[in-house]
Amino acid sequence: MEKPQMGSVIKLRRRRLGLYIAGSVLVYNLGSGLTPAQAQATDALRDSIVVTATKKSEAEDVQSVPLAVTAYGEAQLDAYFVKDISDISFSQPNVTLENINSVGGALNFSIRGLGVNSSIPSIDPAVGVFVDGVYLGITTGATFDTFDLEGIEILRGPQGVLFGRNVTGGAVLINTKRPSDEFEFKAKGQWETGLNQVYQAAVSGPVIPGVLNAKISGMFNDDQGWFTNLATGEKFNPGQSFSIRPSVELTLGDSFDLYVRYEHGETEDGHGVGQNRALYDRETFDLEIGNPGFLSQEWDMVTAEANLDVAFGDGTITNIFGWRRFNSRSIFDPDSTAVDYFKFGEYTEQDQISNELRYAGTFSDVVELTLGLYYFSQDVLYEEVRFLFQDPILAPGQAMGTIPGPLSFYGGGIQDHKTYGVFGHVDVALTPTLSLLLGLRYSYEEKSVNIATILPGPPSPNDFDIPPGACNLPAGDCVFNVNADPAFDPEEDFSALSPKIGFQWNFHENAQTYFHWSRGNRSGGYNLRNTSPVALPGPFDQETIDAFELGMKTQTLSGRATLNAAVYWNTIKDMQREVIFPDPVSGLIQIIANTADARVRGFEVDGQFFVTDNFVLTGFAGHTDAEYTEVLFDITQDGSVDDVDLNLELPRAPKWTFGVGAILDLPVSDIGNATARVNFSHRDTSFYSDNNIGVLSPGDILNASISFSPNNENVRFSVYGKNLLNDVTEGSENPLGFPPGQQGTYAGLNKGRVIGGELMVTF
Description:
Layout: H1 6-15, H2 41-44, E1 50-51, E2 60-61, E3 69-73, H3 74-79, E4 95-99, E5 107-111, E6 114-115, E7 127-131, E8 134-135, E9 149-156, H4 160-163, E10 170-176, E11 184-192, E12 196-208, E13 212-223, E14 227-229, E15 234-236, E16 239-252, E17 256-269, E18 274-276, E19 294-310, E20 315-332, E21 340-363, E22 367-391, E23 407-429, E24 434-457, E25 491-508, E26 511-522, E27 543-555, E28 561-583, E29 587-612, E30 615-631, H5 643-646, E31 656-668, E32 672-683, E33 686-687, E34 695-696, E35 699-710, E36 715-722, E37 730-736, E38 744-749, E39 754-762
Parallel strand pairs: 7-10
Antiparallel strand pairs: 1-2, 3-9, 4-5, 5-6, 7-8, 9-10, 11-12, 11-39, 12-13, 13-16, 14-15, 16-17, 17-19, 18-38, 19-20, 20-21, 21-22, 22-23, 23-24, 24-25, 25-26, 26-27, 27-28, 28-29, 29-30, 30-31, 31-32, 32-35, 33-34, 35-36, 36-39, 37-38
Organism: Hyphococcus aureus
Family: Belongs to the TonB-dependent receptor family.
Subcellular location: Cell outer membrane
């Protein structure tokens, strides 16, 4: 396949012209960056699209990338009324992008059966999230809103060479929209059942023509609550959030540009949305909460990307700097009853800084080379308070002595974390159609912690506070009882090599096949939520995955039909898992350990077909087959490691995911154009908890919309529906020992049916 010329491609990369749309999934490929009045959705599907996720000096045609990638451009996110990343959770094969929904703002991303089930900030994710090339070090607060984005790219499978550790499942790349060199304005309002209101606006243009462009965008979300609290009869989980993003882009001549973006955001929510399934049917949205709780999060982030063209290899030197500060403070009611059996409070502070310096160039049209250095550092403080039986309500005739008295628990930890990396990737053209793909990354990490086991303390008030008489982690006066055990090592370093080798064969002008083997690593570490009186909080060892992938991408010469497919086989050694089980004393115990070795295999297929010039059908399907091959830990907590543990299902690994969609553009007399879209997606049931007590329900999600754009007007009016079948799905389901004497689960619910309207204006 012929690749774009490097000079023009670099300009495309720098201007970010809405072309961050990847090629193996086209379910949501509904347009380029054109406004509704400029082009129909089906017209834009024929445009040539390039991607830059491979970090080469040349951007690559979507069908030329030897990777399994799902991506959405600005037009796709607008067309499907996506508010944050979780709104596209059901839209790709073998991908789950969920919020936990018990702890606000914490994500549980999983790709090809690999993910984490934790809000503990010291646990590294299996699916990394990158914003403008900057890795986010903790999973909490990473559910990025999608307004004013150029695109989202979802890379399936290990990405260890180019993106480092903690991407054993894959990577989610979020690219913000750069300032424009002409005046642009975009604003939209959304009103959804709940009532949920979202207002967004962005203005961009030149400050010094040809040299300096600037932009500012903002978002405000007022959600009055979709759920009803049966304990009070009132709407539940109201909240507000806002963010503001000023940015500038400096261009000096034809060889240098600098893009700097700042973001400030705040969230104030009421509570995690939990259903106690010992009390309510899992096929309903019924729930009751005695304590409404609160969530308060605030963050600041700076990213800076500089690009310098150099003569050597006709290449580009790129430097990406990132800084982020995040804090969270919350109280929620995990027993999900009208009685205060169990309340949970957390406080999290995180500061991170990172820098990546890389070179990418091409030599003699034969060798494409990428070399880089990477540094990352973060400090994390985590404090946790638990309140048990603060206001117990006795059953008739029940004696007070049969219920434990009010208890408070306090603990947490502090972690200092540094990472260093060096990487290289080279594509060598062995023949005009056959290329050898080679990559290698070396990573070195240092982690040191102070951990206070979460232990009972004196009673405390019904608010998040350090219990009277307890130690104070930030003040450094805790007695770290785990340090008294000679088996506990509070400092550990981890190193790993992440190699990759593969081939790419362009056997036809518009068709290719590829194969590669790669190794990924997820960092070892510590559990800052140490609740077990017998298990140490680490250090647990790193997780290693060997991944084999064979893929094919095809497209007709006219672009009328596209079909892509991939099969994969992954073997995981020393799998890190969070074993969760109820505890009558502390409420819940969570142990992080290397529990097992496993094998995960499967396939993915997706495509699109133009039935007519203005009617397009799309679809995808994915299958995952996962099993343990050796068990190293008592996952069931029954006192032995045996076949009962070995025969458990791997969590977060639904066997089947599939979806179909249709897009129809129709002129409306001579006054404008209408677009109708409908998509149905299915995801099989899967287990959430490692002991297979918590279950994620199967999902059948039907979304539809109708949009109208008048002629010669940059206005779009839309009516849309999400989850029109009102299907009950969850982001999490954990075992729970409340109410006392009943074995239930606590499920973090997603919203059901949502009907909305939108007005969008662009000029």
